[in-house]
Amino acid sequence: MDFTKEYQQKLITPEAAAKIIQDGDCVDFAQGCSFPRTFERALAERVGEVKDVQLRSAISVAPLQTVEKDPEGKSFTFNLWHCSGLDRKYVNKGQAYFEPMLFRHCGPYYTKGYVDVDVAVITVAPMDRFGNFSFGLSNCTNQDILDKAKTIIVEVNETMPVIFGLTADRIHISQVDYVIESVDPVAALPDAAPATEDEIAIANFIFPHLEDEITLQLGIGGMPDTLGSLIAESDLKDLGMHTELMASAYLKLYEAGKITDRKKTIDRGKGIFGTCMGTRELYDFLHYNSNILSAPMTYTNDPAVIKQHQKFVSINSCISMDLYGQVCSESAGTRHISGTGGQLDFVTGAFESPGGKAFLTMKSYNKGKDGVMRSNILPKFTDGSIITTPRTQAPFMVTEQGIANLTGKTTWERAEAIIGIAHPDFREELIQAAEAQGIWRKSNKR
Description:
Blueprint: H1 4-10, H2 14-18, E1 26-29, H3 37-44, E2 53-57, H4 65-68, E3 76-80, H5 85-92, E4 96-98, H6 103-111, E5 119-124, E6 132-134, H7 142-148, E7 151-156, E8 170-172, E9 178-181, H8 197-206, E10 215-218, H9 222-232, E11 240-246, H10 249-255, E12 271-276, H11 280-286, E13 292-294, H12 297-300, H13 303-306, E14 312-317, E15 320-322, E16 327-328, E17 331-332, E18 335-336, H14 343-352, E19 357-361, E20 365-367, E21 373-375, E22 377-378, E23 396-399, E24 402-405, H15 411-419, H16 427-436
Parallel strand pairs: 1-2, 1-5, 2-3, 3-4, 5-7, 7-9, 10-11, 10-14, 11-12, 12-13, 14-19, 15-22, 19-23
Antiparallel strand pairs: 6-8, 15-16, 17-18, 20-21, 23-24
Helix pairs in contact: 6-7, 8-9, 9-10, 15-16
């Protein structure tokens, strides 16, 4: 059966698609590198024509034109499930707003009716001969959004890789209301910057805890890339991948033969991810690669799924922590940085995995614009910093100074272990704070 005629009947210009949006509409976009940039740019030209249009996405990789051209929000209000470095600038300027969530719950927010979708616009790969459009790089919450939407627009992008899915990985032309064609290549991220000395130190503290046949979840950034290089050059073998976000660190592990997915407890022989952001080389690697499957976040981030993997290892980053073991990964005081994302999902699942471990990493210190060095380990949180991982679930904490396992530790044991991975310049004042807070045993080491 030839679906070309139906495709042509539904094909409209980006400008015509933007005209579909009406006052008060809730418009959802795909996330990250699957964001429909051509449509959003056309929609931005309607600043002043429409009002109170609610837009929703996550992890922007290019400037948002609906924000840039409407910084005062006269027509559009942009809402974000999770923030990139670009997004946090918008949020902290009051030009966009954050929606707190756990990634495993994001899809059910739609299916259970907590959020509305009038129009969904997602980037897809070109239609195949069966009339299907692959979701490509972002499985994530796409199906939940589409199921909720009253109108569906797909933005076809020739540079979007076709990626097979465990489930919910495509949409058929018969389910689409309108088709537009993108003039923007799918956004790709540059190679990671060279690792810093602190990132190398952190990676080296984690590496001895890794072993053959682990299933690995890595975040994005310099430290995961550094750890990926260590693993690629090591004797480790038969690793597996189950992750919410597939970044370029995984590519070198597949190319080095370290990740085979052959020993995974579930989904054996298949690497699983929820969304992907990385280099063009990574996208080319995934194109029609039946060894790697996308899946919804309700699957990738479900602790009940994660814990079925034996020796599951989760490695993510955070911003700061206090002497009680509370972990902040979302803000510096009230200044927004990121979001909960899947951190707590994977900390929970990794702990419940037989032989599993979770690691949260950070520098022990930061330097402000004033050049003053400050500790990222605080006596207690009092400045509005958002608690992402509660002290009851704080796992292995890692800084460039060392590693501390907080599981099962009393308050004084925690304080001693946490101060042990603080920067030496701040340890004495942290000890004094712990004493004042009643969590420092008199016989503790100094």
